[in-house]
Amino acid sequence: MFYGQMEIVSSESIRKNIQLMVLAPLESKMEGAVKEAGPGQFAMLHSPDDSRLLPRPISIYDITKEGFLAFIFALKGEGTRRLSELMPGSRLYVTAPLGNGFPLEEAKEKKRITVIGGGLGVPPMYFLSKALINSGSCSAEVPKKNLDIVLGYRSESELILEKEFEGLKSPDSLPDKEENGTQFFLHFASDDGSFGSKGNVLDLIRYKGIESDIIFACGPKPMLRGIQAVAQEKGIPAYLSLEERMACGVGACLGCVVKTRSVNEHSLVKNVRVCKDGPVFLSSEVEL
Amino acid sequence: MSVKNEAVDVSPKLETSIAGIRFQNPVMNASGTFGNSGEYSQVINLKDLGAIVTKGVSMVPWEGNGTPRVAETPSGMMNAIGLQNPGVEAFLDRDLPVLRGFGTKIIVNICGHSIEEYEAVSERLSEIEGIDMLEVNVSCPNVKEGGIAFGTDPGKLSLVTRSIRKRTKKPIILKLSPNVTSIADMARAAESEGADAVSLINTFTAMKIDIRQRKFFLANGTGGLSGPAIHPIAVRMVYEAAHAVKLPIIGMGGIASGADAIEMMMAGASAVAVGMMQFSRPSILIDVKNQIRDFLIDEGIGDIREIIGIL
Fold first, then answer.
1. Could you state, in order of their start, the residue ranges of all structural domains in chain B?
2. Which of A65, A283, B103, B237 has its CA 20 to 30 A from that of B15?
3. Pick among B208, B280, B284, B285 to test the A interface (most A CBs inside 10 A)
């Protein structure tokens, strides 16, 4: 975990009320933050506005080839709106990387991997998908893999990153595709049927008969509940990235807990911290 | 060459003392905002703090409230954590050794649902090495029993102070609630029953409503308001308490800078604690300490104690 200044390289609205912000390290320790950051981790963006004092937890969408951190966030309230108004060249304090991130090693021995993103849960799944494709996660035991990426939206007007995910297929972003033997399928669903299959991500998975040995997901709670039920029914691990109102982001304040099914060995009660113990949890461990 | 050495010597003295315990500087964290096991040790050097103050420790594990537990408000925040903690035994086994490793003073904040639980936890900690003081939380607005119920009635505050006083050899600090008509009466109640110090202020009971959902924003309904929004009220209350009792005071409430800390000390605080702003600027405790030093140099003041309670 590092705390220091970063500079806004670019900040643009990619859709109504959705901002893409790219930050470059200004101090060498923040280069360390970029180096350590993994898929599913997040950063705290500290607002320079003295009336909006809590930092905003934003998941890392990508690390650019220049070594910059990229974030996509919704303008949900005053804090995120003011962050979005900062011009390129502005500096802000960032704490990163935070949280546990997705356990890539759990995918190592799995043949059929499913990555699911819903709405604003889509951005962190880009970073994860890239890592799964590029990590050479195939081994002697599992020489061929299927990676199904399932992205769900409310409607076509709320699409984000669909082109970037398509881009993962191009040879440019996928230099080792042939060698590491990961076969990659991209699926889209929208609630109103205006883009991809009509229905939600679980409808799509059922309809297309996508089978999984492991699931990684981020998205709205009802979607995660559905995945939790499917994972339980099929007896497969599902790693879910959760969201909760946070204050500190580092495990100090206990503001962002989620209920667990059994007593947690750190808290000694049925609570875990989304910021520190998560944000990624095994679906069988948490109450959603 | 000797000139350089002399220049070091003019650095103002930051040392302060409370109930006979000496603190290398007057800056500490406020309970609850700093974790219990060095969560911020990757950002700042914890040995440079005046003291580390723990989260509330109770006799048995407490589950705390539902979520959302926190909300941002203009220049502040509300919280209703509900004193979630793993209980005193886990604290002693797991957290205290880590905290002691940082090499500064340690103040353990204690809480209870009943007089008996306050007594039990203060007795349990009474002879533990490496704990310098106990801070008694009688002002948490977010638990249904205990907490603030003891901190808003001078009679009950006297009772809890007296009970704890009998059961521990450690110096005790009573942490006062601002949700009272007269903070002076509360400070007097603590003083009369043998408290060694008071700390103030805890948070203000507050409410935020989600107007679209037509419901309370926090799961608990109400929460405690903290942050720079409450700072001027905190300064006023520290001033009132300082003029009511002889006890040393740890001043807190929205401190965001060295200037805020100096204000608090001029109003009567012997030390200061920074709470909510820790989240906003993780380096703030060291920033405040350095800004206090710079202010003293600027004003030609050789010793921080010269400004305590000058108003």
1. 2-63+86-197+230-307
2. B237
3. B280
Nearest residue on chain B to A55, alpha-carbon basis: B280
Task: Write the CATH number of the domain with boundaries B2-63+86-197+230-307.
Answer: 3.20.20.70
Please name which of A228, A210, A231, A232 lies closest in space to residue A219, comparing C-alpha atoms: A228
Q: Which of A230, A189, A188 is nearest to A213 (CA)?
A: A230
Cα B176 from Cα B136, distance rounded (Å): 9
Q: Do A54 and B55 touch (CB under 8 A)?
A: no
Which residue in B has a C-alpha nearest to residue A274's C-alpha?
A: B67
CB atoms B33 and A253 under 8 Å: yes
Mean pLDDT of chain B: 94
Q: Spell out which residues of chain A touch residue B54, defining contact as CB-CB under 8 Å.
A: none
Residues A134 and A181 in one domain: yes
Residues A235 and A114 in one domain: yes
List b or e across A78-116, with b for residues whose CB sees 16 or more CB atoms inside 10 angstroms. ebbebbbebeeeeebbbbbbbbbbbbbeebeebbbbbbb
Contacts of B310 (CB under 8 A, 6+ apart): B266
Which of B49, B134, B140, B262 is the catalytic position?
A: B140
Provide the 10 A C-beta neighbour count for residue B299.
Answer: 12
Is the confidence at residue B8, as pLDDT, over 80? no
- Which residue segment(s) compose the domain that A24 sits in? 2-98
Whether residue A183 is found in the same domain as residue A230:
yes
What angle is formed at CA B175 by the lines to CA B169 and CA B176, rounded to 5 degrees? 140
> Catalytic residue at B111?
no
d(CA A169, CA A164): 9
Specify whether A114 is located in the same domain as A215. Answer: yes
For residue A210, the distance in angstroms to the closest alpha carbon of chain B comes to: 34
Whole-prediction pTM: 0.94
Checking if the pLDDT of B214 tops 60, the result is yes
Same domain, A117 and A224: yes
B-contacting residues of A 74-113, CB under 8 Å? 77, 79, 93, 95
Judgement on whether residues A231 and A252 belong to the same structural domain of the protein? no
Here the tokens at position B279 are 């989240």
CATH of the domain at A110: 3.40.50.80
Q: How far apart are CA B119 and CA A46, in angstroms?
A: 41
Model pLDDT for residues B130-176, shown as the tens digit of each residue: 999 999 999 876 666 666 778 899 999 999 999 999 999 999 999 99
Chain A closest-CA separation from residue B301 CA (Å):
30
